[in-house]
Amino acid sequence: MWLAWCGALLIGISLGLLGSGGSILTVPVLIYLVGEPEKLAIAESLGIVAAISFIGSIPYVIKKEVHWVSLIFFGIPGMIGTYGGASLSQYISGNTQLMIFAGVMIIAAYMMIRERTKVSYKKPASIPKWVLVIEGLVVGVLTGLVGVGGGFLIIPALVLIGGLSMRVAVGTSLLIITLKSILGFYKYIDVLAMEGLEMNWELIGVFSLIGIAGSFVGNKISQKVPQKQLKTGFGYFLMVMGAYIIYTNF
Q1: Of all residues in the chain, what percent are helix, strand and coil, respectively (each to 5)?
Q2: Where is the chain membrane-spanning (predicted)?
Q3: How far apart are CA 165 and CA 60, in angstroms?
Q4: In percent, how much of the chain has pLDDT > 70?
């Protein structure tokens, strides 16, 4: 079981280092290291990520590094999408959910590897706010369907469409992920009940605590290690993981 605890620590560290990536590791850790069924792993990951993201967002809130307007434009549609995605999950097999998850993981990996080092933080006047709303809705559906918080999509959207600085985008993203994950987790309680499954509350609690500790470690490391190298390395790791999930479930 110690491998599972190491996985929980890695989830927290990735969130602390990059402001994203934690949720995309949680599902594989719960499935391959703990042995949870697909649907249960997706549901439990939402609870774990909600707890870690909420604690991780507190320093940003204290330092006023959260953009509340973007939270509304992205967060509310994201919550609606998450609830819809979780509702839709009852009509899709766990294997299919996992294949979709692997596809999202590979897309995330590609974005991290190809990410430009220079990003303009000026708000593009040509891009309307409804684009942010639509992306929030789409990312929310993915969150509810496969348990991905979507920080790798939220942060670029907040920077390029919302015109936020990277630090404010990360703080805002953590709160958005928290809200979406809580609502998705709540809906999954009903979805699992229909299939005769129950949450492992002890596992969720232990993973959350270890992940929270890891997020503080990751935050400290992030101040000393270049973000570009971190994201590139993490991207290649996700690419391998995504390919492995597809191979084992095809």
Answers
A1: 80, 0, 20
A2: 12-34, 41-62, 68-86, 98-113, 133-161, 168-189, 201-218, 230-247
A3: 13
A4: 92
pLDDT tens-digit readout, 22-66: 678 888 899 989 999 989 999 999 999 899 889 888 888 998 989
Q: How far from 192 is each of 40, 131, 179, 186, CA to CA, in Å?
A: 7, 33, 20, 10
What is the Cβ-side half-sphere exposure of residue 247, based on CA atoms within 13 angstroms? 6
The residue-averaged pLDDT of 161-190 equals 87
Helices (H), 63-124: 68-70, 76-88, 94-114
pLDDT tens-digit series, residues 204-237: 999 999 989 988 887 777 777 776 777 788 788 8
Q: How many residues would you count in the chain?
A: 250
Phi and psi at 161, nearest 5°, equal -100, -40
Joined together, the tokens standing for residue 191 give: 């979805």
Region of 116 please: left (phi>0), alpha (psi -120 to 50) or beta: beta
Give the range of the structural domain holding residue 85, as residue numbers without chain letter: 2-249
- Are 39 and 189 spatial neighbours (Cβ–Cβ below 8 Å)? no
CA 7/CA 88 separation, integer angstroms:
28
The Cα-based distances of 28 to 34, 105, 206 in angstroms read 9, 11, 17
User: What total number of domains does the chain contain?
Assistant: 1
- CB burial readout 6-28, b (16+ within 10 A) else e: ebbbbbbbbbbbbbbbbbbbbbb
